[in-house]
Amino acid sequence: MALRKFFLNTWILFKMQVALYRFLGLFTAIVAILVPLGTLFLILFTSGTATEEHAYLLLAGNIVVSLVNTCITSLGQYIGNMKEARGFDFYATLPVSKLSLVFALMGSNIMLSLPGFIAVGILGWLILGIQISIGPGFFLAVILTAATMASIGTMIGVTSKTGQQANHISLVAMFVFIFLAPVYYQIETLPLALQWWGVIQPVTYGANAIRAAIAGLPISYYLVDLVILLAMATVSLAIVTRGIKWREG
Amino acid sequence: MHLAIEAVGLGKTYKKNNVRANVEINLQVQQGEIFGLLGPNGAGKTTFVKQVVGLLKPSTGKLKVMGEDVITNPDAVRNQLNYMSQNIFAVWHLKVREVIENSGRLRGLSAGEAKKQTQNLLEELGIEQHGEKAIFHLSGGLRQLAGFGAAFIGKPRLLVLDEPTSSLDVARRRKLWDKVRELNQKENVTVLLVTHSVVEAEHLLDRLAIIQDGKLRAQGSPGELKQKVDNRLRLEIIPHNGGLPSGFTRDLGQFGEVFEANNRIVVLTSRGTLQNAVGLVEQYGFDYIDDFRIGTTSLEDVYLKLGGGILGTA
Ligand SMILES: Nc1ncnc2c1ncn2[C@@H]1O[C@H](COP(=O)(O)OP(=O)(O)OP(=O)(O)O)[C@@H](O)[C@H]1O
Ligand SMILES: [Mg+2]
User: Fold this and answer.
1) Which whole number is the average pLDDT over A233-238?
2) Binning pLDDT at 50, 70 and 90, where does residue B229 land?
């Protein structure tokens, strides 16, 4: 019963959050598409044509970038702004759990990265000539990656004093999670220090799992990545829900 | 039966600026009453309310709401009260109808019931024609009505309203007060109401508390408080645009307590000396005044005396 209410509330909050795109829709979608596409082009033009393996690396990397962009940057800024304006007071006096709100925010931001996925998929097919396969494993990998990213985004939002501060921090975070991580490159090709950094980074496992999934490999190939992601998502969500304070001290 | 709200030695100090916004407040709100919180700007009313609804953590003392301890068990309180948030920034992008309906859904109403109650509320509040507009497109007053709709849906046991009518026109204000009274009488909803409209509150409130500088100055029914202040008569003088001649106010002082409120001069005087006060008004001549009336002490006088600062004797 309590669980049913939890899911129902999450669903209602999700719909309330998604309604935001009615007004921001076009512009936000353009940004969501531009960021991964821009990076894709940048890398293509600087590295020339790609082998099939390299192509999957690039496409998976771009999907991760989409997720980092929406779940860390957009979400972090949104929460930072809300915090500054004490906007969550509205929810704080309603009988909803913080985790419901976090899930709703996360879900709506995953949705925001969908246009980016689609654009990357189409371009991969047109330019790189590879077709990506999308199955349950892909969605699982995306959702788990998004969950850890969203936790980080939420954490940035709730610890920032203003929306602007959240903005700055999330840009730094984006850099750390995209360029200092084995998102566009195989982990072995990185300097040792970054390899170690890569081991504790959720995006490493996210990129691995997504890469395997879009290449059409069976889930058993990237099960370990999924399990590690699940553990990271659970821990970070637990930390985040503690970090959100309905009540001012 | 437990009290709706019970504060014992409640204190709140904001750490960042070290402001003691609530000091040793002892206050009881009975179930089923409309209880008012009055006091000048910055008195600590919103601070009190935010602790009741679980947005602020009390620094000292005890606070129970609907029998539940707010400090140790804030979640239990949430299910029993509806608070009209002054901040609907989180849902600024939603349509009025959606805000009200979703608030109902989140409070546990079925989809059908939420829809029905929303429609009724939109009609009762006279904002049906604005139902499909986004909150950020609305004027301040309409936003306030939307917020009220969101606060009312789901039939609360305790309704907490912090200046719900501050941006409303007179007609809508009346409508809202009527709705509050109806709720209170038909559904036995307890209401905690912060307001600056003392005159309107006088007819609505069962009991009230006056807060000033974070401290509780008085608590009781409007009648009790009036008694407490005095049973003198009040002479109210409405000066002409140009103001009163110097010395007039001072001369009135010999007949009783004089203070100024809303650009009016109020003299609280005993039955015996009222005549003399009126005589003085006649003596200065009617050119200086637009109007004057005689009445008994109003809640406004009580408020001004206990919480609003007395100007006349300063
Ligand atoms: N978040 C806050 N941080 C620090 N100080 C605050 C905060 N909120 C209020 N205060 C201070 O606490 C005191 C009481 O403020 P409060 O908002 O409770 O008054 P109020 O009675 O609601 O006033 P008003 O009638 O203007 O709404 C004021 O001195 C105010 O400056
Ligand atoms: Mg206030």
Assistant:
1) 90
2) low
Q: Distance from the CA of B70 to the center of ligand 1, in angstroms?
A: 20
Contact criterion met (CB < 8 Å) for B90 and A94: no
Question: Considering its fold, how many domains does chain B have in total?
Answer: 2
How far is residue A48's CA from residue A30's CA, in Å, rounded to a whole number?
26
Query: Which two tokens mark A207?
Result: 């990129």
pLDDT band at B11 (very low <50, low <70, confident <90, very high): very high
Please check whether residues B202 and B113 belong to one and the same domain.
yes
Residues B70 and B12: beta-carbon distance below 8 Å:
no
With respect to residue B127, please indicate whether it lies within any of the assigned structural domains.
yes
Boundary residue ending a domain (B171, B196, B223) = B223
- Determine, for residues A93 and B85 on separate chains, whether the beta-carbon distance falls below 8 Å: yes
Is any Cβ of chain B less than 8 angstroms from the Cβ of A135? Answer: no
Q: Does any CB of chain B come closer than 8 Å to the CB of residue A104?
A: no
Which ligand 1 atom is nearest residue B16's CA? 4
Q: How far is B54 from chain A (nearest CA, A)?
A: 6
Whether residue B43 has its Cβ less than 6 Å from ligand 1:
yes
Q: Which of B223, B242, B265 is the endpoint of a domain?
A: B223
| Higher local confidence (pLDDT), B199 or B124 | B124
Cβ-contact A154, A79 below 8 angstroms: yes
| A:14-53 residues touching chain B, CB 8 A cutoff | 15-16, 19-20, 22-23
Q: Are residues B165 and B237 in the same domain?
A: no
Closest C-alpha among A129, A15, A134 to residue A63: A134
For chain A, percent of residues with pLDDT exceeding 70? 95
Q: pTM for the complete prediction?
A: 0.81
Compute how many other C-beta atoms are within 10 angstroms of the C-beta atom of residue B223.
Answer: 11
B152 and B286 belong to one structural domain: no
Report the distance separating Cα A212 and Cα A226, nearest Å: 11
The rounded Å distance from CA B189 to ligand 2 centre is 22
pLDDT in tens, B239-260: 887 677 878 888 888 888 888 8
Residue among B14, B38, B193 whose CB has most ligand 1 atoms within 8 A, to mutate: B14
Task: Give the chain B residue nearest A100 (alpha carbons).
Answer: B106
Which residues of A, range 48-87, sit inside 8 Å of B by Cβ?
A: 82, 85-87
Q: Do A85 and B15 touch (CB under 8 A)?
A: no
The boundaries of the domain holding residue B30 are 3-223
Same domain? B54 vs B188: yes
| Among B82, B90, B98, beta carbon nearest to A87 | B90
